[in-house]
Amino acid sequence: MSDDVSGQFTLKSAAFRAEREASWRELESLLWRLQRHGLAGMGANDLARLPVLYRATLSSLSVARAISLDRNLLEYLETLSARAYLAVYGTRRHLGEAVWDFFRRRFPRTVRNYRWHLALAAVVLLLGTAAGWALTHADSERFYAFVGSAMAQGRGPTSSTESLREVLYDRQGAARMLKTFAMFLFSHNSQVGLWAFAIGAAGAIPAALLLFVNGLGLGAFAALYGSRGLSLDFWGWILPHGVTELTAVALCGTAGLVVGGALIFPGREERLAGLARRGREAGVLVLGAVAMFFVAALIEGLFRQLVHSLPMRYSVAVVSAAVWIAYFLLAGREQQ
Amino acid sequence: MSASAPAIPATRPPIGPQTPERLHEVITPEGVPVRFAVALAGDRVGALILDLLIICAVLLVIWIPLALLAGMSLIGGDLVLAGLLLVTFVVRTFYFSFFELNWQGQTPGKRRLRLRVVDARGGPLSADAILVRNLTREVEVFLPLLAFAGPETVYPGAAVLVRVLAGLWMLAFGFLPLFNRDRLRVGDLLAGTVVVRTPDAILLDDLTTRPEVVSPAEQVAPPVFSPEQLDVYGEYELQVLEQVLRGEGTPGHVSAVLAVAERIRKKIGWEGPATHDKLFLQTFYGALRAHLERRMLLGRRRAHKDQRID
Fold it and tell me: How many domains does chain B have?
């Protein structure tokens, strides 16, 4: 430590700063421009400089922590390194590319990974349907307990058989209404799906319950139409879009079960780490399910008004089931 | 400990009162730990409210022309309604994800408040994580709001007790961030993310190379301190002194300099020539920093004045 006549110290940390400061300033302006203009607005030279300057600053930070007690300098380097780190290692994907990859690989692979959870969710949904059917079959008044008024659209045990049949084959009035109704159903279903996923974080039970309740409503409808001898027509009405929609409902329930399972049975992972990993995968399921709800709404809103022949309706149901099964079994198998 | 020796308060917090923040440390792939300050709950709420206001504004901008078109019966009413439902759903559900994907973990609200979403383990922030942390918003924010605004739509026909319990449960969900160190909400837990502050730091001049010290205002030789006098203080006091010296231009700065200079003179038993307060403090800061940094290089750091000198 030199101690000259004027009593002026030359600090190692001050000398260090004088030596490195230019590169910090350069990084700072680079980051500022990056935030302003985005990647596209940066020249090739700047992009090549970024990682170099980032590493230099990171090493400056390490040195400064060891030799400097200038708090402002430490805070500055800390913040600058953090910002540069985020710029260098942040997300780099375009939205379109991410979406394509999602449907091409990520979604079907995740569904395959959780096939047993999905099977369980489907069983719970079917149990709910069976219970709803049996209970409404025994006492038609229970219909109101299982089906909300928005869903029922005025249908119920007191409706005449004719009016019930009309809903299934309506051409004009309801056709226009249905476009709206399909969108309503889409947002409603997606909402329920998101809830099913998110309340999975409270353990798997609420998600299973939600699945069961959804099944109850479907079962109650089936029993109502069954009691008027309209079973065949009813399933012809439900299944073309129902195959897609019910699969999506089951997937949302699956996501809830996955999250709840991660919470209750962490396995070999640390609980939080496991929750984070499986939570992300459950999110993939829900997002795919939302897309499926949208497809279902399109089938419901457009196709069902145009086609009234039962064989056609059933063949659409069969085809859609085949398409989904093929998609989930085959898509994204390569380079796994 | 003998009865006569004064008890040394070893637990004095070595952090200044000006930084009550929680730190989240991330190890970069280069092996250097980078520390982020975890975002304050108030800032998070502020950003959320800002974003919700933007969502409302965007929806209004879309709704009004559509409603006008429908009013003039240029397009069918049912089509408009279907479009509105779809747009509302899409905007509400994907607003946050869209911006966090494109703006590197920031939404307009977060950018305004200098917040950012990062991966809790230091990896790149994946698209999955962003989507997951925002999909759970439905349950954390919208569902409780809906439940309080119209309980009938959420749990129709439920008993009062059930409603109260459900309400409490949803509140616990929403207020989860207040009960953990990293202010994680449910979405953060599921996605493995943390929201941190990324303030704009400004690099100020080094206090030891400032012109006032080099060319003193008064034609007096700057004071010189003995090692014993410098041993009185530690790093915490050094950084408090830095804070005081950097407070130039803020109200109360002059009186603070006066008081601190007086205190230090008394504490170190200063008997040298009377010096201008500011010059005295700046010289003392330089000397103390040099002293402590030399100790630091020798691996003998001293966090604060109450720590024993080894």
Answer: 2
Tell if the CB–CB gap between A70 and B242 is shorter than 8 Å.
yes
Contact A280 B192 (CB under 8 A): yes
Provide, as residue numbers in chain A, all residues whose Cβ is less than 8 Å from the Cβ of B196: 82
CB B128 to CB A24 under 8 A?
A: no
Q: How far is CA B218 from the centre of its chain?
A: 41
* Same domain as B285, residue B212: yes
- Which of B167, B197, B227 lies at the terminal end of a domain, its last residue? B197
Is residue B176 domain-shared with residue B211, that is, in the same domain?
no
Q: A residues 179-218 near B, CB within 8 Å?
A: 179-180, 182-184, 186-187, 190-191, 194-195, 197-199, 201-202
Interface of B with A in 190-209 (CB under 8 A): 190-192, 196, 198-204, 206-209
Query: B168 and B30 in one domain?
Result: yes
State ipTM: 0.74
Q: Is A290 on the interface with B (CB under 8 A)?
A: yes
B54 and B101 share a domain? yes
Is B126 part of a structural domain of the chain? Answer: yes
B226 part of contact set with chain A, CB < 8 Å: no
Domain boundaries, position B76: 23-197
Q: Render each residue's pLDDT in chain B as its tens digit; 310 residues.
A: 344 444 444 444 444 444 456 888 888 888 888 888 888 888 999 999 999 999 999 999 988 888 888 777 766 666 777 778 778 888 888 899 889 888 888 899 999 998 999 888 877 788 888 888 888 787 777 777 776 766 666 665 566 777 777 777 777 777 888 888 888 888 888 888 999 988 877 888 877 776 554 444 555 666 778 877 787 788 888 888 888 888 877 888 888 888 888 888 887 777 777 777 778 888 888 888 888 888 888 888 878 887 777 6
How far apart are the C-alpha atoms of A299 and A316, rounded to whole Å? 10
Residue with tokens 């399972």: A261
Burial of A229: CB neighbours in 10 Å, binned 0-12, 13-18, 19+: exposed
Whether residues B140 and B215 share a domain: the answer is: no
Asked whether residue B168 is assigned to any structural domain, the reply reads yes
Of B98, B131, B143, the CB nearest to A195: B143
Q: Is there a single domain that holds both residue B192 and residue B214?
A: no
With b meaning 16 or more CB within 10 Å and e meaning fewer, what string describes A193-215? bbbbbbbbbbbbebbbbbbbebb
Question: Quick one: B179 and B220 in the same domain?
Answer: no
Residue B17 lies in a domain: no
Does the residue B304 lie in any domain? no
pTM above 0.90, yes or no: no
Nearest-Cα distance to chain A for B34, in Å, is 6
> A interface mutation test: which of B21, B119, B128 has the most A CBs within 10 A?
B128
Torsion from C-alpha of B14, B17, B18, B19, nearest 10 degrees: 50
Which of these three, B163, B197, B231, is where a domain ends? B197
Task: Give one DSSP letter per residue of B62-77, joined into a string.
Answer: HHHHHHHHHHTTSS-H
Residue showing tokens 């207020």? B175
Interface of B with A in 243-302 (CB under 8 A): 243, 246, 283, 286-287, 289-290, 292-294, 296-297
Q: Please choose, from the candidates B37, B201, B29, the residue with its C-alpha nearest in 3D space to the C-alpha of residue A25.
A: B201
Residue A125 has which token pair? 């949904």
Same domain, B162 and B265: no
CA distance linking residue B245 with residue B278, whole number of Å: 8
Which residue on chain B is closest to A274 by alpha carbon? B190
Rounded-to-integer distance, Cα B162 and Cα A37, Å: 52
Put simply, the answer to whether B189 touches A75 (Cβ < 8 Å) is no
